[in-house]
Design goal:
about 250 residues, single chain, 7 helices, 10 strands
Length: about 250
């Protein structure tokens, strides 16, 4: 809840150390949708967590990743779990798959002490063979969960684009705040979260959009001016690729 670098480092690393993890890979988000919104502070935080890890004989790697735009297409609890399942089946958004595979590859490389290329091949095999998905189901079943029982709101509102062009950026913070407003998140720890609400981005960064096309869909029955989220979008006349992983710090 705060962008204090020492507090973030202590919060993250204390949990990892308490669980006796010896190899730690951290996805350190940077951008408008994260607590750390610039690379300078992200690097400071990464080096601090690595230093804490060294003190407790833990190997730590930090991937600085882009949170200026939403990752994947789903925003909200149930919607994001459904998207994660699709990704484990090799059918999810490409940016989410790419980042997940990168993080997993570093973890396998560290844990097995093998080159990153070897680890990447093993991760891709787990993805394509559905071994990763099967392990996910096993974990959920062990915790008495049921992935067949993931519901989302039937009430849906489609918001159409008022512009044509390529999507250059989507402000993740504005969508995060809107998700909180419709109860996908909370203002205080006593608030009740609605796991069925959220957003689905029909078009995302790099996509070509024609005026009048569905830009995003809101899954909610809450009264809200969703058209104001059109301000979260920036368009350009040509396609521009977003950087997914800024750098890796060891």
């Amino acid at each position: 809840t705060t962008s204090s670098i020492p507090l973030i480092a202590a919060s993250i690393m204390s949990k990892k150390i308490a669980t006796n993890s010896t190899k730690i890979v951290i996805d350190l988000k940077v951008g408008s949708g994260a607590l750390i919104n610039n690379l300078y502070d992200a690097r400071k935080l990464a080096h601090l967590m690595i230093k804490i890890g060294e003190k407790y004989e833990r190997e730590v790697i930090c991937l600085l990743t882009n949170m200026d735009v939403p990752l994947g297409k789903a925003i909200g609890n149930g919607l994001e779990v459904k998207e994660a399942i699709l990704t484990l089946k090799g059918k999810g958004p490409k940016d989410l798959e790419k980042l997940s595979v990168s993080l997993a590859s570093y973890m396998v490389s560290m844990a097995k002490d093998v080159p990153l290329k070897v680890a990447f091949a093993e991760v891709m095999d787990a993805l394509k063979s559905l071994k990763g998905y099967d392990k996910f189901k096993q974990i959920i079943e062990y915790q008495k969960g049921d992935i067949k029982d993931i519901s989302v709101k039937r009430d849906r509102i489609s918001i159409k684009s008022k512009k044509s062009g390529y999507i250059k950026s989507i402000n993740a913070l504005k969508f995060g705040e809107a998700a909180r407003d419709i109860k996908a998140g909370r203002f205080s720890k006593n608030d009740t979260i609605d796991y069925e609400v959220g957003f689905y981005l029909n078009k995302t960064v790099g996509d070509k959009v024609v005026e009048g096309e569905d830009l995003f869909t809101a899954f909610t029955n809450t009264e809200y001016d969703f058209n104001k989220l059109l301000d979260a979008y920036e368009f350009s006349i040509k396609k521009e690729e977003q950087v997914l992983i800024y750098e890796v710090i060891k």
